[in-house]
Design brief:
Elements (H helix, E strand, L loop, with lengths): L3 E14 L2 E14 L3 E5 L6 H9 L6 E10 L2 E2 L5 H7 L4 E4 L3 H4 L6 H13 L3 H14 L5 H4 L9 H13 L5 E5 L7 H18 L2 E6 L2 H4 L5 E6 L2 E7 H6 L4 H8 L40 H5 L5 E2 L5 E2 L30
The chain binds iron/sulfur cluster (SF4).
InterPro entries: AAA+_ATPase, ABC_Ni/Peptide_Import, ABC_transporter-like_ATP-bd, ABC_transporter-like_CS, Oligopep_ABC_C, P-loop_NTPase
Family: Belongs to the ABC transporter superfamily.
GO biological process, one term: peptide transport
């Protein structure tokens, strides 16, 4: 029996703008087991980052969690006060963001920034904090860590800055790390190194990780399970193998077909999904993907698809899984040579 570290139940988050209520997250439920890596994948505007910001209570002022429960390590943190949440953030749950330059303070040394959460959350002495900071920089593969402590973020390369961010996120031994597009700003080689580092650290420290990304290729090698989000809802969830080899949702098929194929010419590497995401000011009453879906049926325009169970851990919210629906399989793009995810979850 797996022990759950995080459970989200029926989360609804809206933004109140001058043009009306934007329903950014519309009933999201999922869980994460201890020691597991979960990928949350979807295009921008799918609600993946807003779901995480809702959990962490880091929404912009116009945002509000309207409904839902967040249970972390057995406690319902959605009922915590802001002060109680402050103790959780950066201590028990930490975040890694896309662009370390905007998350790191340019006028403070890397050492000061690493030691700050230790002093704040763990109340340890300056000497102990320094020792721990050196240890963490060395753990994330930064050479000469002692010397690097007194340097400023601009003295580090992009990949090294992301390593510093990872060291910062790990320094208080969090139970959960949420990495939001952790490698998007990096070139492909550095991206692979950072993902490898996260994988190594996860095994070494047994931390649970959620990786948010728009690129399914990024999560293939590191995640145990994947949730695919679209239009503020989870449209498919399953193990990495289920999503890569047995997907039962046309939106996931589109994402799979848009994973860069290294065997093709660079100009032809991506097959983007045509059309635009739904307007969440006026969400459709039927399937949010219907206007872009080549398999859309009449029912798709009229009713939100039920959550169909393909297996115990694999679910798809698409009417094609109804026993009365026509039998449809994923079509590969014409020029896709073969489906080649680097990994298939463990
Ligand atoms: Fe396409 Fe209908 Fe499935 Fe939505 S429910 S993804 S529109 S087939």
């Amino acid at each position: 029996m797996h022990e759950k570290i995080l459970e989200i139940k029926d989360l609804h988050t809206s933004f109140y703008t001058h043009v009306g209520e934007v329903k950014a997250v519309r009933g999201v439920s999922f869980h994460l087991n201890k020691g597991e890596v979960l990928g949350i994948v979807g295009e921008s505007g799918s609600g993946k980052s807003i779901t995480m910001m809702s959990i962490m209570r880091l929404l912009a002022e116009s945002g509000k969690v309207k409904e839902g429960k967040v249970v972390f390590n057995g406690e319902e943190i959605s009922s915590f006060t802001d002060k109680e949440m402050e103790k959780i953030r950066g201590n028990e749950i930490s975040m890694i963001f896309q662009d370390p330059m905007t998350s790191l303070n340019p006028v403070l040394t890397v050492g000061d920034q690493l030691m700050e959460p230790l002093k704040k959350h763990l109340k340890i002495t300056g000497e102990e904090a320094k020792k721990k900071a050196v240890e963490m920089l060395s753990l994330v593969g930064i050479p000469s860590p002692e010397k690097r402590l007194s340097q400023y973020p601009h003295e580090f390369s992009g990949g090294m800055r992301q390593r510093v961010m990872i060291a910062m996120s790990l320094i208080c031994n969090p139970k959960l790390i949420i990495a939001d597009e952790p490698t998007t700003a990096l070139d492909v080689t550095i991206q692979a190194q950072i993902l490898e580092l996260l994988k190594e650290l996860k095994d070494k420290l047994n931390t649970s990780i959620i990786i948010i990304t728009h690129d399914l290729g990024v999560v293939a090698d590191i995640c145990n399970r994947i949730n695919v989000m679209y239009g503020g809802v989870v449209v498919e969830s399953g193990t990495t193998k289920d999503i890569f080899y047995k997907s039962r949702h046309p939106y996931t098929w589109g994402l799979l077909n848009s994973v860069p194929n290294p065997k093709l010419d660079t100009k032809e590497r991506l097959k983007p999904i045509e059309g635009t995401p739904p307007d969440l000011l006026n969400p459709p009453k039927g399937c949010p993907f219907a206007p872009r879906c080549q398999y859309a049926m009449k029912v798709c325009m009229e009713a939100m698809p039920e959550k169909f169970s393909i297996s115990e851990n694999h679910h798809s919210s698409c009417w094609l899984n109804h026993p009365m629906a026509p039998k449809v399989e994923r079509k590969l793009p014409d020029d896709t040579i073969e489906e080649s995810p680097k990994g298939t979850g463990r």
